[in-house]
Amino acid sequence: MKKRIMVLGAGIYQVPLISLVGKMGVETIVVSPRGDFPGIPLSDIHLDIDITDTDRVVNAAKEYGISGIVTTGTDAGIPAMGAVADAMDLKGPSRRVAETASVKTAFRCFQKENGFNHPSYKVCSCSSDIWVFLQEVKKKIVIKPDDSSGSRGVTVIEPRATREKVESSYRNARQFSRNGRICAELFVEGSNFGGAAFLSDGHFRFFTPTRKHMVGPVVQGHSIPSGLCDDYASILRKEILDTALKLGYFDGPLDFDVVLHGREVTILEIGLRLGGNGIVDCIEDSTGTNLLEWILIYISGGSLPGIDCYHPNTVSSYVFGAEYPGRLGSVPDIQEIKRAVPEVKNMVMAKKTGDYVQPLSHNANLVGYFVLRCGEKRYMEVLAKVNRVFQLDVEESLASNSGY
Fold it and tell me: Which of 11, 134, 186, 202 has the most CB atoms lying inside 10 A of its own CB?
């Protein structure tokens, strides 16, 4: 029987993965709710299942006799992926590890119990819980849905915020929380870094940090190299590895977000998959390493290439989106943009003309991203050049759409 690989999700970040699976000569089973998602037409078999519905995903995996299960760019399907790996003895994280890493309060509890740096936090089930926490710490805090990713529902609250501000922030977070819980935590001051890694037998076969550019809770992009000196990069690397091993995660891809304050590293999140916002593209352009191919080699039982020392080219990503909701009109021609801004290498669209777009209040609402030939030092300069020639045409509308 022909081998089958299940891909969870059919959005912009899963499309390259689905395409790679198809090139392997195996059947691609794409799990995603129905909708205008670009990965669905690329599948051999599409299953209309929400990737957060663990039981249905496990039953479908058994029914179709899959030989591997993967996802990228989202945490939503990681617990289901872990459950399938357990049930069918496939490559991937265990369900226990997947749920610990993918649920914010569970991860904070893990950090606390194992002596890792972490912000003070509170598990909240109502806005009053958040208000009490804010009065206790008297400092800036962050409100996060407990089991969501892509900066959905995240709000930064100042110490003198009103009760009304706390109420609206709670409602915003609650709409994205599947388990109904909210994580309120102390805002961690310092420099933001992201990155990706690949583990094999408890060792890094690949590791690179990125300089993470933020606009409030929204990720604006990443830059490689990160600008970290070797000493600080080693401190970050050790904290990531120690955390992964203590979790019980010894093999597979890893995405991370950290804050560095002096020589102290605080891990905000760890994802047991590769990240979004152009980070995979940047890594390939910078180092020549296609980590999506590594995932497929890993789940197929092959030997990873393994490059841990390299001299990266300078590259960055820039996420763009709409200022207000509406229908996306014509998109500027990429060749014209390149002629005007030579630093632009590529543009990847998450939406197409006629699609409904929401304001870029979180990264799941991105319209697309650029890959740029520049590093962190020229990042803002190049963004200014891009924005002078690139404008989204959005016609206001009341319709809506969503996806992973």
Answer: 134
